[in-house]
Design goal:
Length: about 100
């Protein structure tokens, strides 16, 4: 039970921290900001097109919205995976560094 609780707390910490990092990247990283703006502009164009074609393709708007939600979820999951791997890597790097220092 303690292990499960610790795992849930850690998962929440990772989720919150990744969100903080991505929010900071949006304001402090010019490349990330540029990409985010380009994604937003492309989504806007898709929505305009979907609305214009609503009569011929009524499901298109919903499909575009689903795509946006799923790509946002995918990006968040990718960031979380990278963050968790970075934590694992930092432990290994620290061990290797300590081994070198003790030689």
């Amino acid at each position: 039970m303690l292990t499960r609780l610790l795992s849930e707390v850690f998962d929440q910490y990772v989720f919150t921290r990744v969100d903080q990092i991505l929010n900071l990247a949006g304001t402090h990283d010019a490349r990330y900001s540029k990409t985010a703006a380009e994604v937003s502009a492309a989504l806007g164009k898709l929505l305009v097109l979907a609305r214009a074609l609503k009569a011929q393709q009524p499901e298109m708007t919903g499909l575009v919205m689903d795509f946006e939600a799923l790509t946002a979820l995918e990006s968040g999951q990718a960031a979380e995976i990278a963050y968790r791997q970075g934590l694992r890597d930092s432990r290994q790097i620290r061990r290797e560094l300590m081994t070198c220092l003790h030689r």
